[in-house]
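FORM 7B: Structural annotation worksheet

SECTION A. Query
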Amino acid sequence: LQHSWTSPDENTNNIRPVSPPVTRVCSADQTLAVLTSAAGEVPDYRPSLESVGGFIQKFEPGLEHLEEVEHVLQIQKTNSFGSDSMAAMSARPPRGAIELMWTSPPRTALVVCKQGGGEPLLEALRLVVKSLEGMVVYVEPSLKQELPLETETLLTWNIPEPDARTAGADELDASLAPCQPPAALKRELDLVVTLGGDGTVLWVSSLLGDGPMPPVIAFSLGSLGFMTSLPVQSLKTSLHMFLTGGFILTLRHRLHCQIIRAPVPGQLESTQEEKRLVLNEVVVDRGVSPFLTSLKCYCNSTFITDVQGDGLIVSTPSGSTAYSLAAGGSMVHPQVPCFLFTPICPHSLSFRPLVFPDFVELKLKVPRHSRGTMWASFDGKHRTQLNPGDSLLISLSQWPMPTVCFKDDTTDWFSSVKEVLHFNLRKLQGEFSRQDEDEDE
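SECTION B. Predicted structure
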């Protein structure tokens, strides 16, 4: 896959690719700068770099450090993230990673912690607050209530009325729904620090919702750590490097999901429900129904197949090491632009997992003749019933989650795969001894 930067066409609203090595700059408050395939038309919903700054400077291959660049582009951050901090960014071919360096200090941070971390979590939180001294630091309302008085300098936001937050949801789903910060606060955030595991990173994705996201620096205090590559032992050092030097980001694709309800008797048009955003996967399953799932699947209006089994997983590359992996899907590097299409216990010997390019739209429809209802869940939350005639539309969100790498995206990912899943762990075959060679002769 070749990548190129895109810039706004002055005469149209389309986005057109810019071939390297030409350096082009475009503004986030106009047309988005996006990572695209160099071939063909470029859809305007592909992953956007607006979530990590307003302007993009493309550097030539071979440059090893930002300091070596004579004219580092200074970018004024707009509503993309933060207030008015300055940053400089580059993409380093062929690796495709993004390096960001602050040129004026960030001012506002959000710290998100896992639940039930005990004293080790509190100690890590104290160290984070100390490292962010001089910045405005926010925490979630639920965490603020549990913290001791010594952390009274931490700010939070007001919790809305329960009825406004949990309307239409059962008690369990309401407990899993994050209390999102106000839109004005989201725009002010320069960075997010997480203390926990992969579940905490998923929580941040739900917390900030469908929109541009600031860089997320995730420290591992969980049990796995595919997305939390930074060890908590390096917290002080990593935060210092993050705030004062350059760092590499991984853009983690997210999926945009929307349920289309079938018209009820007496109604002429379908209704659209609230949009959902997922970082790992969206799952459609049969729930407690004894019948097989029955789903008709389409790709850009082209019929693909009927899914008959326990369900279907549509996953991002970041989610490829989660439920999709357990269901037989492939592991995919987080920078590969694609969807994973993985059946759950299909009642067929020939149904194998598929991989779709990231620019398509998938449609999962429950046929009207289905024997039972289906259930959709989004990153394990917001479990929603799908009735016969309902559809679920899935496409790539233009707002990826930028996470900070410990080393770089490839090293971090393979390290987690080998350490957590013991990928291809096997005793190596021994060499021939000299005696064996002599006997063969």
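SECTION C. Observations
Confidence is low (pLDDT under 50) at residues 1-94, 164-172. Residues 118-131 form the longest helix (14 residues).

SECTION D. Sign-off
Analyst initials: ____
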